[in-house]
Amino acid sequence: MRKIKRLKNGKLPNPLLSKLLKKIKGGNALLGPAIGEDAAMVLSKDLAFIFTLDPITFTDKDIGRYLLNVNANDIAACGGIPKYLILSLLFPKGTEEKQVRSLFSEIQKESEKMKVEILGGHTEITNQVNRTVAIGMLIGTARKDKITPTRNAKPGDKILLTKEIAIEGTATIFREKEKNLGSIFSQEIIKRGKNFLIDPGISILKEAQILNQNCKVNAMHDPTEGGIATALGEISQAAGVKILVEKEKIPIIKETSLVCDYYRLDPLYLLASGCLLAMLPRKEAKKAVKILKENGILATIIGEAKKGKGAWFWQKNKLRKIVPRADEITKIIK
């Protein structure tokens, strides 16, 4: 009898997704569906239209902020500017009108902050969800000569990381598990952890635009579900390069280390919105670190791309292969 293979929570496994995507017939898109790409692109003369779609499923708190930032990050990582938003909002049975009004207000506030126009979408009360699920499709634009898809990474490129890893995951855990953590950590630590959503924040728009305007960037990638580890593997697969990263150089904030140690989570595989991976030639990478620092943004060169395949962490003179797996947050938030 054939054994039934059940999938775990989180993204579809890359091997399965790769097989599914290979069956999709290509058309005239500049960039179609592919592992590791943050968005799709369609070219109109010298202007690229960038399309991305992401849901918010791990939390029902601050959905508007999460929704706008996560989708806008994909556009920014491709070298674009977010422009238009289409929404689908699914509310569980029993949702109160004030909750709907509050979410609409939050989405509108975040959209206005980013100068994104809401075009429309779909809303529904349904028995099929037990918490609010928000799905957003964001459309952006970029000059053709400024696009930075993941596949454009080249051997010899330095890997630059902005801010620290697992910012989104840390904020989500402290917000979702606040009651449980109250007896474990001080209120000061919990307050800071919850505030990671705002400071350092989960948006990469500022650093992506600074890099795009001031440096020769070959590629950028927005680490999200599966953490920085999964994102590095995606760069390798999309660009056909070997990725080597010095693990000790990856910056991590104290609150992230504390909460990951408590729940026995690997921060390298934890929700990572808030940091950006950029691939640049050696001289440009050094220039980028300087410019970002001048703008108050931490930037660290953590590794490089070489000819070959696969992604690896280098630690204490040993190589550890990066293997895609479910995001660590699925261990504690179902």
TrEMBL record:
BP terms from Gene Ontology: protein maturation
Domain of life: Bacteria
PurM-like N-terminal domain segment(s): 36-137
InterPro entries, per database record: HypE, PurM-like_C_dom, PurM-like_C_sf, PurM-like_N, PurM-like_N_sf
Domain PurM-like C-terminal: 154-309
Family affiliation: Belongs to the HypE family.
Name of the protein in its database record: Hydrogenase expression/formation protein
Organism expressing this protein natively: Candidatus Nealsonbacteria bacterium CG18_big_fil_WC_8_21_14_2_50_37_10
Species lineage: Bacteria, Candidatus Nealsoniibacteriota
